[in-house]
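Think of the structure tokens as a kind of shorthand, similar to the way a musician reads notation: each symbol stands for something richer, in this case the local conformation of the backbone. In the example below we present two proteins back to back. Begin with the first one, reading the sequence and then the tokens, and try to describe in your own words what changes along the chain.
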Amino acid sequence: QLQASGGGLVQPGGSLRLSCAASGSIRAINVMEWYRQAPGMQREWVASISSAGSTDYADSVKGRFTISGDNAKRMVYLQMSSLIPEDTAVYYCSANIMTWTTTWRDYWGQGTLVTVSS
């Protein structure tokens, strides 16, 4: 249902854009989010965007990351700038989706690795 892409190796101070595509028999999407999980750490919420376009960010990324969405394409993006080594993690996209056969539930993508290192 969700496919994340765009991860890779980037130097500190660099930028990277992650993408996540939702597919399947989707009737509606309520909110799409990005989470991340660093090695040995718990998964943490990064950013979210509602179907109306409202956005919210974790304090640790505010001012550096920008979440955006394309409702028609059922895509969500995470533009990451001024990256620091502490941003190194596997990034996951999540979405609250209603399909034509199920009620609202959360779906998760497979994760994409972002490594910030010189």
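Once you have a description of the first chain, move to the second and do the same.
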Amino acid sequence: QVHLVESGGGLVQAGGSLRLSCAASGRLLNIADMGWYRQAPEKEREWVASVTGDETSDTADSVKGRFIISRDGAKNTVYLQMNSVKPEDTAVYYCYARESRLQINIWGQGTQVTVSA
């Protein structure tokens, strides 16, 4: 069983920065990609960024050039560095890990990010 624990959310002013962390623990042998989704009020959950086991990363167009995803394999932790944040980045951010054998996503509990104008 894999557990994901997010941290680093909070309130930030527009134009500021925030770093989210997601620590994975448990049976990690079959974990491949890790990344982040977010869900704003009354909107569907949307993919934000992902990073593979060999640290190939990708980000959504809406955050490209502002958000950076990285992974520390030794710590089993993935990070989302959020720069130049905008009010529309306000959402609950969910970390996920892709279990490659079962082909399912395992989710964290979510962390709230609020960007004030």
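Compare your description with these statements about the second chain. The longest strand covers residues 18-26.
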